[in-house]
Protein backbone atom coordinates (compact mmCIF):
# COMPACT_ATOMS: atom_id res chain seq x y z
CA UNK A 1 0.00 0.00 0.00
CA UNK A 2 1.36 3.43 -0.97
CA UNK A 3 1.84 5.88 1.91
CA UNK A 4 0.18 9.27 1.72
CA UNK A 5 2.39 12.03 3.06
CA UNK A 6 1.26 15.20 4.75
CA UNK A 7 3.17 18.33 5.72
CA UNK A 8 4.78 18.14 9.14
CA UNK A 9 2.78 19.72 11.93
CA UNK A 10 4.76 22.00 14.24
CA UNK A 11 3.99 23.34 17.68
CA UNK A 12 5.82 26.68 17.50
CA UNK A 13 6.00 27.29 21.25
CA UNK A 14 6.73 24.88 24.10
CA UNK A 15 9.07 24.71 27.07
CA UNK A 16 11.10 22.21 29.06
CA UNK A 17 12.63 22.80 32.46
CA UNK A 18 14.45 21.06 35.27
CA UNK A 19 13.57 22.91 38.47
CA UNK A 20 16.83 22.15 40.26
CA UNK A 21 18.68 24.30 37.72
CA UNK A 22 17.37 27.22 39.77
CA UNK A 23 17.30 30.11 37.30
CA UNK A 24 13.55 30.30 36.65
CA UNK A 25 12.93 33.60 38.38
CA UNK A 26 9.21 33.68 37.58
CA UNK A 27 8.41 30.40 39.33
CA UNK A 28 6.70 30.38 42.72
CA UNK A 29 3.72 29.15 44.71
CA UNK A 30 1.37 31.13 42.44
CA UNK A 31 2.12 28.52 39.74
CA UNK A 32 2.54 25.55 42.07
CA UNK A 33 1.44 22.88 39.52
CA UNK A 34 4.42 23.91 37.38
CA UNK A 35 7.00 23.40 40.13
CA UNK A 36 8.22 20.08 38.80
CA UNK A 37 10.35 18.92 35.90
CA UNK A 38 8.81 18.93 32.42
CA UNK A 39 10.96 17.04 29.95
CA UNK A 40 10.78 15.48 26.47
CA UNK A 41 9.43 12.16 27.71
CA UNK A 42 6.47 14.00 29.25
CA UNK A 43 5.57 15.79 26.03
CA UNK A 44 6.16 13.03 23.47
CA UNK A 45 2.91 11.08 24.07
CA UNK A 46 0.88 14.30 24.10
CA UNK A 47 2.25 15.29 20.70
CA UNK A 48 1.41 11.86 19.33
CA UNK A 49 -2.20 12.04 20.50
CA UNK A 50 -2.64 15.58 19.16
CA UNK A 51 -1.11 14.81 15.77
CA UNK A 52 1.86 17.14 16.21
CA UNK A 53 5.17 16.04 14.69
CA UNK A 54 7.76 18.60 15.78
CA UNK A 55 8.21 21.57 18.10
CA UNK A 56 10.04 24.82 18.63
CA UNK A 57 11.54 24.84 22.13
CA UNK A 58 11.51 28.29 23.77
CA UNK A 59 13.55 29.60 26.70
CA UNK A 60 11.97 29.99 30.14
CA UNK A 61 14.92 31.50 32.06
CA UNK A 62 17.01 34.62 31.52
CA UNK A 63 20.44 32.98 31.40
CA UNK A 64 22.80 31.59 28.80
CA UNK A 65 22.87 28.44 30.93
CA UNK A 66 19.22 28.00 29.96
CA UNK A 67 20.08 28.35 26.30
CA UNK A 68 22.82 25.73 26.63
CA UNK A 69 20.46 23.39 28.52
CA UNK A 70 17.82 23.64 25.79
CA UNK A 71 20.35 23.08 23.01
CA UNK A 72 21.57 19.93 24.76
CA UNK A 73 18.00 18.66 25.06
CA UNK A 74 17.28 19.51 21.43
CA UNK A 75 20.34 17.59 20.25
CA UNK A 76 18.99 14.47 21.97
CA UNK A 77 15.33 14.98 21.04
CA UNK A 78 14.46 14.39 17.37
CA UNK A 79 11.04 16.03 17.58
CA UNK A 80 12.58 19.38 18.62
CA UNK A 81 13.15 21.23 15.37
CA UNK A 82 14.70 24.36 16.84
CA UNK A 83 15.51 26.34 19.97
CA UNK A 84 14.68 29.96 20.77
CA UNK A 85 17.22 30.92 23.40
CA UNK A 86 18.09 33.90 25.60
CA UNK A 87 20.95 36.38 25.35
CA UNK A 88 21.48 39.65 27.18
CA UNK A 89 20.27 42.21 24.62
CA UNK A 90 21.80 45.10 26.59
CA UNK A 91 25.31 43.68 26.95
CA UNK A 92 28.50 45.02 25.39
CA UNK A 93 29.50 41.53 24.27
CA UNK A 94 26.23 40.71 22.56
CA UNK A 95 27.68 40.48 19.03
CA UNK A 96 30.19 37.81 20.05
CA UNK A 97 27.60 35.79 21.97
CA UNK A 98 25.18 36.01 19.05
CA UNK A 99 27.85 34.72 16.68
CA UNK A 100 28.61 31.86 19.07
CA UNK A 101 25.02 30.70 19.29
CA UNK A 102 24.27 31.37 15.63
CA UNK A 103 26.74 28.56 14.88
CA UNK A 104 25.03 26.05 17.18
CA UNK A 105 22.85 23.34 15.59
CA UNK A 106 19.13 23.95 16.14
CA UNK A 107 19.57 27.53 17.44
CA UNK A 108 16.91 29.42 15.47
CA UNK A 109 16.10 32.57 17.44
CA UNK A 110 16.17 34.45 20.69
CA UNK A 111 13.76 35.96 23.17
CA UNK A 112 14.28 38.51 25.90
CA UNK A 113 11.50 38.24 28.48
CA UNK A 114 10.24 41.79 27.93
CA UNK A 115 7.04 41.22 29.91
CA UNK A 116 8.91 40.88 33.20
CA UNK A 117 11.42 43.73 32.92
CA UNK A 118 11.13 46.85 35.06
CA UNK A 119 11.60 49.09 32.03
CA UNK A 120 8.55 48.83 29.75
CA UNK A 121 10.57 50.56 27.02
CA UNK A 122 13.63 48.30 27.35
CA UNK A 123 13.42 47.40 23.67
CA UNK A 124 14.04 51.07 22.76
CA UNK A 125 17.33 51.42 24.64
CA UNK A 126 20.03 52.48 22.14
CA UNK A 127 22.25 49.44 22.75
CA UNK A 128 19.25 47.09 22.54
CA UNK A 129 18.23 48.63 19.21
CA UNK A 130 21.79 48.23 17.93
CA UNK A 131 21.70 44.58 18.96
CA UNK A 132 18.29 44.09 17.36
CA UNK A 133 19.90 45.25 14.12
CA UNK A 134 22.52 42.55 14.60
CA UNK A 135 19.76 39.99 15.06
CA UNK A 136 18.10 41.23 11.87
CA UNK A 137 21.39 40.99 9.97
CA UNK A 138 21.96 37.45 11.27
CA UNK A 139 18.65 36.24 9.84
CA UNK A 140 17.62 34.75 13.18
CA UNK A 141 14.07 35.05 14.45
CA UNK A 142 13.06 37.28 17.36
CA UNK A 143 10.26 36.29 19.75
CA UNK A 144 8.33 39.15 21.34
CA UNK A 145 7.05 38.26 24.83
CA UNK A 146 4.94 41.19 26.00
CA UNK A 147 1.78 42.41 27.62
CA UNK A 148 -0.41 44.81 25.63
CA UNK A 149 1.15 47.82 27.40
CA UNK A 150 4.46 47.05 25.67
CA UNK A 151 3.11 47.02 22.12
CA UNK A 152 3.56 50.75 21.36
CA UNK A 153 7.24 50.43 22.29
CA UNK A 154 7.56 47.29 20.17
CA UNK A 155 6.04 49.13 17.21
CA UNK A 156 8.68 51.86 17.56
CA UNK A 157 11.44 49.27 17.63
CA UNK A 158 10.09 47.52 14.56
CA UNK A 159 10.03 50.83 12.70
CA UNK A 160 13.65 51.44 13.73
CA UNK A 161 14.75 47.92 12.66
CA UNK A 162 12.69 47.20 9.54
CA UNK A 163 14.62 44.04 8.65
CA UNK A 164 13.83 42.26 11.91
CA UNK A 165 11.84 39.05 11.54
CA UNK A 166 9.71 38.96 14.67
CA UNK A 167 6.82 36.99 16.07
CA UNK A 168 4.42 38.11 18.80
CA UNK A 169 4.05 35.38 21.42
CA UNK A 170 0.62 34.60 22.86
CA UNK A 171 -1.16 37.43 20.99
CA UNK A 172 0.69 39.70 23.49
CA UNK A 173 -1.48 38.31 26.31
CA UNK A 174 -4.66 40.36 25.90
CA UNK A 175 -7.06 40.53 28.91
CA UNK A 176 -9.28 37.66 27.79
CA UNK A 177 -10.68 37.02 31.26
CA UNK A 178 -12.04 40.57 31.38
CA UNK A 179 -13.24 40.42 27.79
CA UNK A 180 -11.47 43.68 26.92
CA UNK A 181 -10.33 44.17 23.34
CA UNK A 182 -9.11 47.76 23.49
CA UNK A 183 -6.53 49.22 23.26
CA UNK A 184 -4.96 45.82 22.42
CA UNK A 185 -6.93 45.59 19.18
CA UNK A 186 -5.53 48.79 17.63
CA UNK A 187 -2.01 48.10 18.86
CA UNK A 188 -1.99 44.61 17.32
CA UNK A 189 -3.27 46.07 14.07
CA UNK A 190 -0.32 48.47 14.10
CA UNK A 191 2.13 45.62 14.75
CA UNK A 192 0.63 43.51 11.97
CA UNK A 193 1.29 46.32 9.49
CA UNK A 194 4.97 45.35 9.58
CA UNK A 195 5.26 42.63 6.91
CA UNK A 196 8.10 40.76 8.67
CA UNK A 197 6.05 40.21 11.83
CA UNK A 198 4.00 37.09 12.60
CA UNK A 199 1.81 36.10 15.55
CA UNK A 200 1.58 32.93 17.60
CA UNK A 201 -1.91 31.65 18.35
CA UNK A 202 -0.83 30.47 21.78
CA UNK A 203 -1.05 31.28 25.46
CA UNK A 204 -4.73 32.17 25.42
CA UNK A 205 -6.16 29.72 27.95
CA UNK A 206 -4.02 31.05 30.79
CA UNK A 207 -5.24 34.59 30.08
CA UNK A 208 -8.89 33.49 30.15
CA UNK A 209 -11.26 32.68 33.00
CA UNK A 210 -10.84 29.33 34.71
CA UNK A 211 -14.06 28.10 33.09
CA UNK A 212 -13.11 29.42 29.66
CA UNK A 213 -14.98 28.42 26.53
CA UNK A 214 -14.18 28.77 22.83
CA UNK A 215 -16.43 31.80 22.57
CA UNK A 216 -14.25 33.61 25.12
CA UNK A 217 -11.19 33.18 22.90
CA UNK A 218 -12.90 33.74 19.56
CA UNK A 219 -12.81 37.58 19.35
CA UNK A 220 -9.05 37.60 19.91
CA UNK A 221 -8.35 34.83 17.41
CA UNK A 222 -10.64 36.47 14.88
CA UNK A 223 -8.77 39.75 15.19
CA UNK A 224 -5.27 38.35 14.71
CA UNK A 225 -6.58 36.17 11.88
CA UNK A 226 -7.89 39.27 10.11
CA UNK A 227 -4.70 41.26 10.78
CA UNK A 228 -2.01 38.68 10.02
CA UNK A 229 -3.75 36.31 7.63
CA UNK A 230 -2.97 32.66 6.99
CA UNK A 231 0.68 33.25 6.06
CA UNK A 232 1.71 34.91 9.34
CA UNK A 233 -0.03 32.88 12.04
CA UNK A 234 1.68 30.05 13.94
CA UNK A 235 0.06 27.55 16.28
CA UNK A 236 1.75 27.19 19.66
CA UNK A 237 0.71 25.23 22.73
CA UNK A 238 2.69 27.09 25.42
CA UNK A 239 3.02 23.70 27.14
CA UNK A 240 3.48 23.16 30.04
CA UNK A 241 2.40 26.66 31.17
CA UNK A 242 -0.95 26.00 29.48
CA UNK A 243 -1.57 23.06 31.82
CA UNK A 244 -2.59 25.59 34.44
CA UNK A 245 -5.81 25.95 32.43
CA UNK A 246 -6.07 23.09 29.92
CA UNK A 247 -4.56 19.82 28.73
CA UNK A 248 -2.36 19.77 25.64
CA UNK A 249 -5.10 18.23 23.50
CA UNK A 250 -7.62 20.87 24.59
CA UNK A 251 -5.27 23.66 23.57
CA UNK A 252 -4.66 22.11 20.15
CA UNK A 253 -8.39 21.48 19.68
CA UNK A 254 -9.29 25.07 20.60
CA UNK A 255 -6.85 26.49 18.06
CA UNK A 256 -8.02 24.12 15.35
CA UNK A 257 -11.69 24.81 16.05
CA UNK A 258 -11.34 28.60 16.12
CA UNK A 259 -9.00 28.92 13.16
CA UNK A 260 -10.92 26.30 11.19
CA UNK A 261 -13.89 28.66 11.13
CA UNK A 262 -11.89 31.10 9.01
CA UNK A 263 -9.35 29.04 7.06
CA UNK A 264 -9.46 26.03 4.75
CA UNK A 265 -7.22 22.93 4.81
CA UNK A 266 -4.27 24.45 2.91
CA UNK A 267 -4.15 27.50 5.15
CA UNK A 268 -4.51 25.35 8.25
CA UNK A 269 -1.48 23.33 7.12
CA UNK A 270 0.46 26.60 7.02
CA UNK A 271 -0.67 27.74 10.47
CA UNK A 272 -0.02 24.32 12.02
CA UNK A 273 3.38 23.74 10.46
CA UNK A 274 4.45 25.41 7.26
CA UNK A 275 4.65 28.93 8.64
CA UNK A 276 6.73 27.86 11.65
CA UNK A 277 9.10 25.90 9.39
CA UNK A 278 9.59 28.93 7.17
CA UNK A 279 9.81 31.51 9.95
CA UNK A 280 12.34 29.59 12.03
CA UNK A 281 14.18 28.12 9.05
CA UNK A 282 13.68 24.50 10.06
CA UNK A 283 13.08 21.51 7.85
CA UNK A 284 9.48 20.97 6.82
CA UNK A 285 9.68 17.19 6.60
CA UNK A 286 6.61 15.24 5.65
CA UNK A 287 5.22 12.41 7.74
CA UNK A 288 3.48 9.25 6.54
CA UNK A 289 -0.22 9.06 7.21
Automatic annotation (TrEMBL):
EC numbers: 3.1.1.-
Keywords (A to Z) from UniProt: Hydrolase
Molecular function, one GO term: hydrolase activity
SUPFAM superfamilies: Metallo-dependent hydrolases
Protein origin, superkingdom: Bacteria
Gene3D superfamilies: Metal-dependent hydrolases
Pfam families associated with the record: Amidohydro_2
UniProt domain Amidohydrolase-related: residue ranges: 10-281
InterPro entries attached to this UniProt entry: Amidohydro-rel (IPR006680), Metal_Hydrolase (IPR032466), Metallo-dep_Lactonases (IPR052350)
Xref: PANTHER family: AMIDOHYDROLASE, AMIDOHYDROLASE-RELATED DOMAIN-CONTAINING PROTEIN
Family: Belongs to the metallo-dependent hydrolases superfamily.
The protein's name: L-fuconolactonase
Gene source species: Aureimonas phyllosphaerae
Source organism phylogeny: Bacteria, Pseudomonadati, Pseudomonadota, Alphaproteobacteria, Hyphomicrobiales
Amino acid sequence: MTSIHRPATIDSHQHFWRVERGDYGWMGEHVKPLLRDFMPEDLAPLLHRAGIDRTILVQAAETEAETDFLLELAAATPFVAGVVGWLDMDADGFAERLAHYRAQPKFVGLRPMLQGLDDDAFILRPRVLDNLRRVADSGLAFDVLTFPKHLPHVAEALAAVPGLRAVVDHLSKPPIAAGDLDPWRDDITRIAAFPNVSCKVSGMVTEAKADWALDDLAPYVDHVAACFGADRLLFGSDWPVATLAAEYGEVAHAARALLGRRFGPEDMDKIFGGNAARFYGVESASSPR
